[in-house]
Amino acid sequence: MSNLSHFNTDGHAKMTDVSEKASTLREAIATGNVFVNSDTFKIITQGTSKKGDVLAVAQVAGIMAVKRTPDLIPMCHPISITGVDISFTPDEIQSNIKITATVRSKGETGVEMEALTAVSVTALTIYDMCKSVQKDIEISNIRLLKKSGGKSGDYVIPAKVSAVCISEQKGTIKIPVPEIRVTANYGIEGDAHAGEGIRQVSLLAEESADKLRSKIPNLKPGAFAENILTNGICLHELPIGTKLSIGEALLEITQIGKECHNTGCTIKTQTGECVMPKEGIFATILKSGIIKPNDFVRVESGKWKVES
Questions:
Q1: Looking at residues 97-117, what average pLDDT do you find?
Q2: pTM score, two decimals?
């Protein structure tokens, strides 16, 4: 136990000595979700709570929590915070308020705990502001997304699949399904667009879809005709030829973006733009397998090797 930084040689708790560490710019980004019912979601997003503006109060609470983190977490060092930003992404379909906290500091130790504390207290404040109208509010998925600076270097949470979708007939909207089975040099079994060619599967990042959710908050997975929706990876910045292992399968990027021939596209009509022609990608299947939500998405370097 003595090799853990928060224990001394006698096995007793201590605060880690950071005197010899270099002072560097450090940043941490954390996120979390608050799931409510549809009525509570409207109260939050429309600002009609009797207690006041829920998100504005929660935002201030999160910022205050960052400054009090050492008072809450015993072994955290008091540090000089240089910046805090807390933002919200409402999702009407899931009645979910996504919280993102970014914390910066120049010092000898990181700000991961400050970012996580910010998200936690922000979420708890939303609960407190809304508990009179809903008791079963769910707070979940509080986690560190990324951090930079310090001896340990950068960390980014692994990318994952957030949804998989198919359309059984061409010309119909793609719908989310529990899983898809992809076949090498063919595409998705049961999907009308499967077949030989370079566009066997379409992929889109949640980060791209989020650009239009402020204008159309009820966008569902598959709305942009994507088969696979990912989270945590900027797909359209990957070069053609990049290999992605997703779940059991291996894909190779063959095309980035496409020409939109549908002048009556609902998304483009409502927002003036559609992200799929610019930021959607297409791929062929190199290795068959099943892909489902929460599967990891990994960029493979060098030759693909199948683990035994």
A1: 91
A2: 0.62
